Amino acid sequence: MKALLKALDVMVYVVLVVAAIITLIPFVWLICAALRRPEVYFQYQFLPWGDGFLGVNWRALTLDHFGKLFDQSQFAFGQHLLNSVFYASVTAAFATLFSAMGGYALAKFHFRARGFVTLLILSSLLIPGSLLLAPGYQLLFHLGLLDSYAGLILPGLVPAFGVYLFRQSMLHAIPIDLLEAARMDGMGEIRVFFEVVLPLVRPMTGAFLLITYLGCWNNFIGPQIVLQSPDKFPLAVAIAQLKGLYSTDYGLLMAGTLVSIAPVMALFLLLQREFISGLTQGAVKG
Amino acid sequence: MSVSVNHPRWVPYFFLTPFLLCFGVFMVYPLVQSIWLSLLQTYGPEYTKFVGLDNFWHLLRDTEFHLAARNTLIYTLGSLFIQLPVALGLALLLNRPGLRGRTFFRLVFFAPSLVGLVFAAMMFALLFGAKAGLLNEMLRRVVPGFPPEFPWLQEYVMTSLIIASLWMYAGYNMIYFLAALQNVDPALGEAAQIDGAGAWHRFLHVTLPEIRPVAGFVTLLSIIGSLQLFELPFVLLDGAGPENRGLTLVMYLYQNGFERNDLGYASAIGWVLAVFLAGIALAQRRLIRE
Known about the structure:
The complex is a heterodimer. Chain A has helices spanning 2-35, 64-70, 77-108, 114-124, 133-143, 149-153, 160-173, 176-184, 189-200, 202-218, 221-226, 235-245, 250-285. By secondary structure, chain A is mainly α. Chain B has helices spanning 11-37, 54-61, 63-94, 102-110, 117-127, 134-142, 157-183, 186-194, 199-227, 231-236, 249-259, 263-289, and strands spanning 40-43, 47-50. Chain B is globular.
């Protein structure tokens, strides 16, 4: 029996390790593809073998693709990177702020429209985003906001899901006595929100910021429809264009993909604990 | 008492205002507008013609739309019946008591879901390559008699998409299952074990009922996500692919609205999708309650 259990344990590890390797292969492959010189691109799938250190032919590797990408006169990826950072940061910051404010109002106050607003939010969660593409485009056209960052960001600040999440976590995380005590001390309502309420839902705030940031960073259809000037494109749209135009320069395409993925991966590695707990909070306890 | 009383009456409204403003302008208004739009034929945002229910009648006979619906359905079923069992399996393995490296494995499996669909499509366009793609090269080595240039992106488009989404989202769904499993009281399983229930029985009669609400939630999220598939095939195939094999509902909506400039027809497609999703969500709620 003991031997059997031991064998089972080993099996579990074998399955997990194999699954982990399969999961990681595309990442390793991507890094190698971005670094191989065009002359040897098709000869190898990963690193080019040779007689260099560790049996790798290091001279067949190059950083040229990255240089080309960031060269202002060629692809100006620096600009697209900045566009992505700007778009994702501004949207995430305001969407989180508005969600926390809305969730606070619904969780901690009694007012006449409360039931109605909650119902509105819950039913809007079922509406597919693609239904709003055509009327949203028309609206932005009439507002004169096409091809502008305002037109890209404003529609992203409708965080019904976020309001719901914050409402759920604030219902229990914020003792009402604390709010009353703060008011007794003469704190204004806005200071109460920023100095008492927000610190109490810090994990939720961090997780929602990250989720929204990631959603914007990876968003393609929004900027694809709203933006027209290439210098305004975020990475997701820029790279799709690159694929259309330079479909045979594989090393360049993979370098661009790597540049687009790496920042969010790094951010996630730094903040993974908050991220995962925030992601599952609404689902498991709600 | 769970809500405040000692505050001026304007306070909750003040905190709701930014959200309600955005919500009204960019959600409620376009939603209402899309009902009107679905009764129009348009060319761009300005030129419109009232056609009544013609858009919907046309959808009934539109073979491209039917193909898009079929493809989307195949993808959705593939994701559900392949991805979710894999996700649950991984979660069960990671939930074994005394497992080492749980955090590491969780991190690795979750990582692909951070990659945007566009960026994943960039990678898979090359990984699935018939001649020099990594997948074919590996399969040629492992599977005897595997064809030299298996046409993933030419003929097996939906299979390719299902494989790609397995890589991307199995670990994402696993996170939910794992969180649910970790909430299951271990005493339940131990009690069943003392009663002589085998591992399979314990899973079926103790674990599964306990994680049912989360399983329902994950299933619903997967269905909603899968039915809206767009970026992955759009970038992977530079459009709908050979013979529209990668055409999906949202891609068809996009093509009509933004390539053929008929926002009216696009809205009609959007409404069919919305009604479909609402139906699934309702059916799902009923199933969970039972």
